[in-house]
Amino acid sequence: MKLNLTRRAFLKRSSIAAAAFSLSDHLSPSFVSSASSGSHSNTEIIPTVCGLCKARCLVEGVIRNGRLHHIQGNGKSPFNGTKVCARGLAAVKLLYDPDRLKYPLKRSGRRGEGRWTRISWQEAITVVSSEIKRVLASRGPEGLALLAGGSSSWYIRKLFQEMDVPHIYDASWNYCDSIRNIAYESVFGDSPGDFHSLDYTNTRCIVLMGSHLGENVQVPELKKFTEALEKGSQLIVVDPRYSAPANKAGYYLPIKPGTDTALILGWLHHIIDNELYDESWVRDNIEGFDQLKEHVSQYSLERVEAITDIPVQQIRETANLMSYHAPATIIHPGGHGGWYGNDVQRIRSLAILTAVLGSWGATGGIKPPVKRENERLAPFKLPQQNSSFSLLRNKILRGDIGVVGCWGQNPLQNHPLPYKTIDAFNKADFIFATDVLPTESILYADIVLPETTFLERYDMLESWVSDNQSVIASRFPVVAPHFESRDPYWIVQQLSRQIGKGRMFGHSGVEEFLDFQLRQVDSSLQELSKNNGFIRLPDLEDNNGVDWERRSFPTSSGKIEAASMYFQKHGWSPMPTYEPIDSPPSGFFRLLYGRSPVHSLTQTCNNTWLNHESPENEIWVNDTVAKTMGLAEGENIILENQDGIRSITAIRVKVTPGIRQDCVYVAHGYGARSSLLSQGFNRGVSDTYLMTRSKKDPISGVRGMRTNFVRFRKS
């Protein structure tokens, strides 16, 4: 069915309707009542970078009479312009949240109780640094672990890297970047990066597979995506659930969970068998194409239909559509990738499809930044450590790791088997934690170091590469720090001095350090401040100067590699292969999860404004299933997983034809377990606490979490 909707109608009709105001010029009533009061005298506008999701929008803080009045988009931004999402608007309530961590704290009760004694910063720094030095002396760097994420963790990660600590883990990187990067680099020798490398301006066809696009509301990409649809780009959405973008799709394919690889290989079989590709492009640029052709021949459309539940006609028509518009076809590389434990090969098949369509490097396809980009950006990048959380957790349980740092991470809501994580935290010799709010992880800390919100601090310099230009921005504090919270550079600098490690912390403060970095691009904080908070670097190499028709790729063969000899050498299949997954037991449904358009995972669960818009999540249940089981719209039920673990609270039923009968769906980020979060505690159901099973991807080491099943119990 072809759907022709305006963007406004799309937003209204889709499941992001609750956040439709985030892309408009109007505010929700709950925002208006708080944001419109007060005098307009003594108004100051300060540019900064939003810190509430990975999009890092350029925004401005409007200060009136010394207080942050509201957040607005930076009209000079080449990415989000004047648009700000709901979370960005609601950052005001993060700044003034009464539950904020206000002072350094020392645990005075059992771990998990949330009982502390207020201490000085001097004592807090001394205790943490002494524990780190003790473990370094007795066990070496292997005795330390750091769970760290978000922009504020840049400095602590640098310090731990300089101490040669091998155990540094970032959940966002592992689940959203590492799988994708491994997959694409095995094909192209390069990864697609962020949304900037997708040429929405010139694309004619977009393919989304299980994507959160439209529901994670990362404004820069969503803005380009909706503009592409308005200009007539075709959209194909593959998802067991009728997601927000599915509402705008020309083709919606409700695939059986876990069969995505089979569908992609079926598409490839049809495209190759019917010669719907550019023969000269393939001949000149793809190594192993004949092997690929033979491999996908086993995935006939009839076989793929039997595996995926997608009719042959729809498989054929969608393959024809993306081929017809190629190379101006975007096969979206996706974000969160830890699904079923065979995820690198699944995403690798997406990359191979992109290659066969000729869309890698093409106008309207994926145009990753040239690797020979301005080398002066290197100081702003942080090398990633790809540790496995399960491995770290087991080492803590065995006593191999004594000191654990938790900085801006909430592993009790990020990883399966949270009860095992609690056991590990209780086993650790010492835990220090840094955050803005008292999350579950904070409850298990021996020392708590309260950091400033992103609105009260400078941070690492942010850099983007988009449309053949490089942009560098700084996060500027829009108000002074509240209470005794401190900026992350200062905290890590104090630790560095007492530990005696850390080469980059000899500056007087973060401003001097950032100016030192900016001198490498002939700039300064003062220049950024005068220039709306960011600068453009004009000397980035132009992608348009590269011969994309015939070029050398940074792989061992110098070509796109459809068959990976590296994978074969390590005992993995050189070609993506469909691997069946377990079906739900009788009476159970596969638990699927995704993003809320209003919340940033559990990071915003305590935000009053956002909870006004979406206080709890709900469970999507197929209407036929609901009728058979006697479930009514809005009814509250308890969820029980395959191992007998039940949800602590009940969840409201959403009866809909927009989900397959073998699945249920909840938005992630609800059901906080910290009673110190007055707004988020036990509101909704945490999907993480129902995840007692996972499957490890043999290539990335990341665990797939869509391997759990639930059934319903009356509340």
Rg: 25 Å
Cα end-to-end separation: 39 Å
Strand neighbour order, sheet with most strands: 5-4-15-14-13-6-7
How large a portion of the residues is in β-strands, by DSSP E? Answer: 15-25%
Shape: globular
Poorly predicted ranges (pLDDT <50, ≥5 residues)? 1-38, 371-375, 540-548
Helicity range: 25-40%
Q: How many DSSP E strands?
A: 27
CATH class of the largest domain: Alpha Beta
Q: Helix count, per DSSP?
A: 24
Mean pLDDT: 90
CATH architectural designation of the largest domain: 3-Layer(aba) Sandwich
Q: Work out the count of structural domains.
A: 4
CATH topology of the largest domain: Rossmann fold
Largest sheet: 7 strands, mixed
Protein topology:
Layout: H1 7-13, H2 29-35, E1 43-49, E2 58-64, E3 67-73, H3 86-89, H4 91-95, E4 105-107, E5 116-118, H5 121-138, E6 144-148, H6 154-162, E7 168-169, H7 171-188, E8 205-209, H8 219-230, E9 234-238, E10 251-253, H9 260-273, H10 279-285, E11 286-287, H11 289-296, H12 301-308, H13 312-325, E12 329-331, H14 343-356, H15 389-398, E13 403-407, H16 411-414, H17 418-427, E14 430-435, H18 440-443, E15 447-450, E16 462-466, E17 469-473, H19 488-499, H20 510-518, H21 525-530, E18 534-537, E19 560-561, H22 565-569, E20 589-594, H23 608-613, E21 618-622, H24 623-629, E22 636-641, E23 651-656, E24 663-667, E25 695-696, E26 703-704, E27 709-714
Parallel strand pairs: 6-7, 6-13, 8-9, 8-12, 9-10, 11-19, 13-14, 14-15, 20-24, 21-23
Antiparallel strand pairs: 1-2, 2-3, 4-5, 4-15, 16-17, 17-18, 20-27, 21-24, 22-23, 22-27, 25-26
Helix pairs in contact: 5-19, 7-14, 9-12, 9-13, 9-14, 15-17
